[in-house]
Amino acid sequence: MTSGMAGWSKAPCRRCAWTVPVTRAGVCGPCLLAVRLGEDDAWVWGELHDEALASGRPRQLVLAIEGLPLPEARPVRMPHAKPGRRAAIPAWLRARLPEPVQDDPRICPPQVPGQLGLFPTPARQFARTHAARIGDRHIPGFEAVSEHLRQMADERRIRARTMWIWRLEGFARLALAARDPDRHQVATEALKDLLYNGPVLGQALDRAGLLAPPSPHRMIPPRGTGPIRQGGQRDPELRGQCTHCLAWANDRRVVCVPCTSWSSEMRKRGGTEAECSRCHRTLMLSAGMCRMCRIIVAETEVDTAQIAMNNGDQLWFSGPHAAALAVGRLLPGTAAPHGRFALKRRRARARAMSERQLSEHLVDPAQLELFPPQPRDWTRLDTSTPPALTAAADTLILDFTAYIRSRGWNPDYFTGSIRTLRIVTGHLGAEAPIQESDIRALASMKGDLQGARVINYLHQRGLLNAQLPTAPSIVRARHHASAIACPAFSAAVHTFIDVLLGQGNTPSRARRPKTIENYVGSILGTLEIWIADGLTDPREITRKHIEDALDPLRGDQARRLHTALRSFFRALKRERIIFRDPARGISLPSSRTVPTALPSDRIAGLLDLLDDPRDRLMVALVAIYALLPGQLTHLLRSDLDRSKGQLRLRRAERMDHVIYLDAFTLRLATAWELQRHRRWPDSSNPHLFVTRNTAVDDSGPSISAGVVQLLFQRVGLPAGRLRMDRIVDEARHSADPVRLMELFGLSNLSATRYVLSAHPDKKNGPIAP
Length: 769
Description:
This protein is mainly alpha-helical. Helix content is 40%, strand content 4%. Strand 1 and strand 2 form a beta hairpin.
């Protein structure tokens, strides 16, 4: 230490404040020795960073022993160093005092990844000194950008390669550290904060895949702009909030991207800016409301969280957390059928169903009925919210759905039937049989409720109280019409209808509803004429009155009225309302038509016009075996024996007629059976011919006569004319009435008529009638 005394001067030491010889740095030798031995590291750190510390610190006493040299003590910082400039750290001091980690939390403070920023990024400018203060911070993606900067330096052949990379690496740290927490890439507008280094760093970030592409809908206000307060000054705190939907985002946009897309789409559809019916702002509208009001209405339509506000608006964040709404023309107060709002409605419905109570009108099977059940009035029932289901009712509905699937039907097409069963069992339960009248009354209320499948299913399960057969609606209508049109003869007409239904004093065979309608409809006009002539009682009607009523009529009209009047007075006499039958003995001249054959050109290629196997088989049975249309509708599958080639025709009050089918007709029957099994493998309808409606009906109805009529209308020939042609053709070849009776099941009189029409020369022969 004495070797360096030449440049020393006597002055107060800056460290210990003793007036002793000090170096040019103002520190005495014992203090330098104490620093070298590590007794005051805090003072050394302050000396290196030009920080003034209070004097009076302890000195190091030195004991000089001959042969033991003291360590060399040199100043830590020389006085010629410029203020604010960092001094070079000696090697002996660097080993003992490592530099602290350079991560200033005030520079681009670290944020939680994935969290949406509350405030938008302010306008700023980065410098190299900012990068030095975060030089030790670990920043994801920095290594990739640094590697690309080195490659760019080699491509550009930069001379000061190390300095160029060192400077850009610092700005790369700043750009990556300044990313929004909800973004992995650096925004394109953030490159402006890097001054003249932005273009080069943008290229490096783009190569590393860390530069976000610019948004085509981005609307960025220039620096210093933004929403204006009432005083005329711009409010920097409102920057980043959308002026249309008021959604807050950590950006500098005035209008968010969803609202920009909304306005663009509405403008393409011909929309214009107008006053919103809810918030009264002039914006682009859809269904009379702006986008924000549409979202709020959809958000508060179903209050699943029980936080509904009265006359208030809900604010939300933009970006990935924003409430989305599909662009479309929807009614006010409605939302898209899919998405978060649809999920809220489903949850609300599920919660409402869980809160439903059991019905107060559940039928107890153990309780006896005091009075016979009366028809219930379901019109006052709110079918939209049925009560909760019992365990038995829930099981029944599940079994009904499984039954629909087992039949090969799509349950989506039978929602009306499932809903009907749901409403009935919800109100009445499933422990006791259900009245058929209740199901029919409920199904008649709305078009989206069906009861036919429900009745068939409950009948199979033994849970149905079948409705007693009543007079057909057409008969009831005739009762009502007769009471209004002919009040004087209303009692007689009602008695006539009862006799036709088989409900008179003397049992009789019931007529078909269509026959009853024709009879009553034919006599009502005549009864009105008699009432106008002053006749008020059936006993006053004479033979002359009936002949006068039939005299102006001709043809079918006369025959219909004659038949109806004879049946009318015969029924009244049997019921002892009149003493004599005035219509007895009255007859009309009739001319029977002679059966004739059809031209051959109208029959040729008849089956070639049809593609459906069912239609081909029906036409073949009429054209070859002369079946009647009514016989086609009532054929059963058990009537067809393909192994024996026979078809049985069942006839009421007569012996069954057996037809022997040829090979061509058997092939048509086989094709129809295969198609029926392929289309309706689980059909339980016993009839041979079915349609798409009757095939799936468990009650097994027959096809209607209209199906046969429409078929022969497409062919262009009536079924009766085709049948007549077949019988006439056979009569021409055989001329034997017995053969016609065996082939076609005709009566002897009909067979004789056909033979005589085919062979007029035999009219005076042994077969003449």
